[in-house]
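[job 0412] stage=fold_complex status=start
inputs:
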Amino acid sequence: MNIIVCIKQVPETTDVRINPETNTLIREGVKSIINPFDMYAIEEGLRLKERFGGKVTVLTMGPPQADAALREAIALGADEGILVCDRAFAGSDTWATSYTLAGAIRNIGAFDLIICGKQASDGDTAQVGPGIATHLNIPQVTYVKKVEDAKEKLLKLERMLEEGYEVIELPLPGLITVVKEINEPRLPSLKGMMRSKQAQIIHWGQKELNLDAQQIGLCGSPTQVVKIFTPPQRTGGQMLSGEMPEVVNKLAELLRSEL
Amino acid sequence: MDYLLTEEQKMVRDLAKKIADEKIRPVAAKYDQTEEYPWDVIKVIAEAGLFGLFIPEAYGGMSVGVLNLCIATEELSRACGGIAVCYAASALGTFPIVLFGNEEQKKKYLPDLASGKKVAAFAVTEPEAGSDASAIKTTAKKEGDHYVLNGLKHFITNGGDAETYVVIAMTDKTRGARGASAFIVEKGTKGFSFGKKEDKFGIRASSTRELIFTDCKIPKENLIAKEGMGFIVTMRTFDMSRPGVAAQALGIAQGALDHAVKYAKERHQFEKPISSFQGIQWMIADMATEVEASRALIYATARMVDAGITGVSKESAMAKMYASDVAMKVSIDALQIFGGYGYMKDYPIEKYVRDAKITQIYEGTNQIQRNIIGLQVIKEMGK
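[job 0412] stage=fold_complex status=done
writing structure:
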């Protein structure tokens, strides 16, 4: 089974702070990690490879330092890493990103399954996975919590719903996005880490992918960010104390004055 | 302090730290309480490839030496000295085969020990033979193609959970220490059983049991090296493994120090963090200096071993003795910084004190280490 896992390098969100003046992330000194949901995607890819043989290719779009995320995936057991990186792709929203990644996947050639994490921890859109399937015109199942059964050309999946789950069969080639209930990601092995240091990461830009210039980067992104703002921090409330009737009167008075 | 570690050594450190933080810390208190063998963590360490660090590549290991073993043991011990000793004791049981095993023995046993599929144990100690290894009573009598083992080993780390045992037994009682031999015994061999599991003060995640041999017949191919080499096998094994025990003590000390410093910054008294008081700062200064000195001694010794220098008994003994004395002192001082909270099991620090104590006792008490060091220093001066 030839599997492509799409990953994203994100800032470790537990550390992220926002500059209140510019409303942008303070990225200095913040560690970059593989999007936590993508770790489950990588793990599921590796487990399917262990069952069926084949190959796991990890694919990411990002700046040159996203190379580190691909190497981390190789340390876990992925066979190959591809970095889609070009100034022409800068400013992509989820539509342009999924268009570009779909272009890269066409460039890879034949595959059986694409696995994505359900969403990225920084953007939280959950749109890129479904976008890729749309651009490639292949079937997709989102929020997969279990691969019940797998055959060469058919997956039987459990898709998580708010209450319970549904069982869906997915003919391959297809795409799934996975939730954290699906598995417990492994840690890297020493041999894997050594291999990842040596690994050759494939770099593809617009020259290699030759995509429609109108559909990539900022120009291909219909999303308009109108305003980014930090919600004002909640200040402590006011506590009223005293006898019940007195407190009720005071509260009513305060509410009236606020209205 | 920068020890100028290679890329590979940094990788081992980072990987072991990741295992310690993500897989060991959350379960350390549980295993300390239940005394179950931490198989789930052992499996993670095995999959990471850390069991094979010092085992030659030809037999499925990584051939990256004793310093890497020390670095891994140190990082694992920072989170739990008990779980780390399950790992380190397997190395102890594997060293005799790496150092003295013949080609067939290496091929047969090392790959499973390198992959962590099986865990090893080393059995020297007996009820009447602790520091005095020459008092061993377990016998191995040659009968045709077999040796027949009879006797009792006790306080054996990984006993009962390990699959592969290296056992020291007397083949010729009349020759004293020179009549001891080393054998490989597999779990499940007829006549080989286990006694009670010890209820211990510390390192409670690890198992310690008696090994009982009752007319236990093992093939003569399981003899390591030659008859009479048992004592040499033991001493050379300890030379290799003592830096590892020292690293366990170092990890416990560092882990206790980490907790103490963090707590000192959080704990407020007299409207200030207690870390702002000179009394606490001086304690931290002494603790940090001693931990660093112990690390320097261990790494230097491990580098000698990896460089192929033989005759490192003195240095190994120094590293083991110093690091374990430091672990005891630093963990006690760390508990003191925690004050009354430190005495309670709700806080992690009292476990470090309990785990530290054994490092002064096993693999040769610190009194025996001082004998080794003292005699060697005097001998060197006489030259």
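[job 0412] summary: The first strand of chain B starts at residue 120 and ends at 123.
[job 0412] exit 0
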